[in-house]
Amino acid sequence: MEIERKFTVKELPADLEKYPCRIIEQAYLNTDPVVRIRRQDDAYYLTYKGSGLIAREEYNLPLNEHSYYHLRKKADGNVISKKRYVIPIQHPTFASEYKESVDQISLSVELDIFEAPFAPLVIAEVEFPSKEMADAFIPLDWFAKDVSNDPAYHNSNLSRRTF
User: Fold this and answer.
1) I need a surface site. Which of 83, 100, 121, 133 has the fewest CB within 10 A?
2) Per the omega criterion (within 30 degrees of 0), is the bond before 13 cis?
3) For residues 122 and 145, what is the distance between their CA atoms, to the nearest angstrom?
4) The domain that contains 57 carries what CATH number?
5) Which residues pair with 58 in a beta bridge?
């Protein structure tokens, strides 16, 4: 189960280069249900995602390079290219009514900086172990609008955008 919230950002962190960066390319074979292929650095995956906005099923299967490029030719819409920075959240905060212990929880921001034709789009995603934690999470200061419930910000819908 993937449980995540998505945000636009006010500004990029000043020290972005100190965080791990992954180069991602992905394309969609289908958008309902979502069937995606992804190249992340030198790894290749086929992903199925169920319906939903904040919480949904997700299954990843490994692909090899040949299979990835074979399937990419069959993809619909735009191929999405982006850089993903993984930024640990040092002290996540939650709404006061959230009573679960967060001492052992490690959360990170996956900051996606999209390349053309989607630039200058930047999206910050945070994944959670539970829906309750996701709902109680207080966004970081550099986050802007919460777009978790806006399907327009799902990559599968971005892939169908015309320019």
Assistant:
1) 100
2) no
3) 11
4) 2.40.320.10
5) 49
Model confidence at 60: pLDDT above 90 = yes
pLDDT at 101 over 90: no
Per-residue pLDDT, averaged over 15-28, amounts to 97
Name the average pLDDT for the chain. 96
Cβ–Cβ under 8 Å, residues 24 and 84: yes
Instruction: Tell me the residue range of the domain where 86 lies.
Output: 2-158
**Mean pLDDT confidence for 79-106:** 91
Tokens coding 5: 């919230």
**Cis check: omega of the bond before 117, within 30 degrees of 0:** yes
DSSP letter at 118 equals S
Count structural domains, the chain.
Answer: 1
- Confirm whether 163 is domain-assigned: no
pLDDT digits (tens, 9 = 90+) for 42-53: 999 999 999 999
d(CA 71, CA 36): 10
Q: What is the length of the chain? A: 163
Q: How many other C-beta atoms lie within 10 A of the C-beta of residue 82?
A: 20
Burial degree of 135 (CB within 10 A; 0-12, 13-18, 19+): middle
